[in-house]
């Protein structure tokens, strides 16, 4: 990992970066931002991260922007390294929109990409259960994939019906 030459190791809780938690996060930022890129890869079934300086963005997938700050964490009364990622911010923003009612989630036939109506789902489940029709036959009848039929029948999708 790269760090500025003047950087001295900061103790962190459990040897990991501090992350934002639900509720109050009370800390004081004590440094300029350390910015760069993280590239996540899978090695032997483990996820590994490699960090790069901001002017050296790596190619490929799994590359995300990150920011890190030396902070005083009032909850733990200690210095820590606060780590903020691009994907973490996006995830937090979506949760915040949903929790505050600013995002409407369309499901079922209200979703603009839906190929089925609620009545279709009920018919699919009835034909599968009572008539013994299998997914390949039903998928042709309703012009959707076998996998979608199985997900409907097993209530992985269209759970609200």
Concise summary:
This protein is α+β, with helices and mostly antiparallel strands. The chain has two domains: 13-99, no CATH class; 108-153, no CATH class.
What do these coordinates show?
This protein is 27% helix and 25% strand. The protein has 161 residues and is of the alpha+beta class. The protein folds into two domains: 13-99, no CATH class; 108-153, no CATH class. Strands 1, 2, 3, 4 and 5 form a five-stranded antiparallel beta sheet that branches. β4 and β5 form a beta hairpin. α3 (135-142) packs across α4 (146-153). It is elongated, with a radius of gyration of 24 Å. The termini are far apart. Mean pLDDT is 81; it is low at 7-15.
Describe the secondary-structure layout:
Blueprint: E1 27-29, E2 34-43, E3 46-53, E4 63-73, E5 78-85, H1 86-99, H2 118-130, H3 135-142, H4 146-153
Antiparallel strand pairs: 1-4, 2-3, 2-4, 4-5
Helix pairs in contact: 3-4
| N-to-C CA distance | 50 Å
Give the tally of structural domains.
Answer: 2
What is the number of E strands?
5
- Count of helical stretches: 4
SSE arrangement, N to C: EEEEEHHHH
């Amino acid at each position: 990992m790269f760090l500025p030459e003047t950087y001295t190791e900061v103790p962190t809780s459990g040897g990991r970066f501090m992350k934002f938690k639900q509720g109050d996060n009370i800390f004081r930022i004590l440094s300029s931002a350390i910015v760069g890129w993280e590239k996540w890869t899978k090695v032997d079934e483990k996820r590994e991260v490699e960090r790069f300086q901001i002017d050296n963005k790596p190619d490929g997938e799994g590359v995300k922007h990150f920011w890190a700050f030396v902070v005083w964490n009032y909850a733990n009364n200690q210095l820590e390294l606060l780590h903020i990622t691009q994907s973490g911010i996006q995830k937090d923003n979506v949760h915040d929109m949903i929790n505050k009612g600013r995002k409407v989630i369309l499901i079922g036939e209200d979703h603009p990409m839906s190929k089925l109506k609620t009545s279709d789902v009920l018919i699919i489940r009835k034909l599968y259960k009572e008539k013994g029709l299998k997914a390949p036959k039903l998928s042709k009848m309703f012009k959707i994939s076998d996998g979608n039929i199985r997900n409907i029948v097993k209530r992985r999708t269209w759970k609200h019906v």
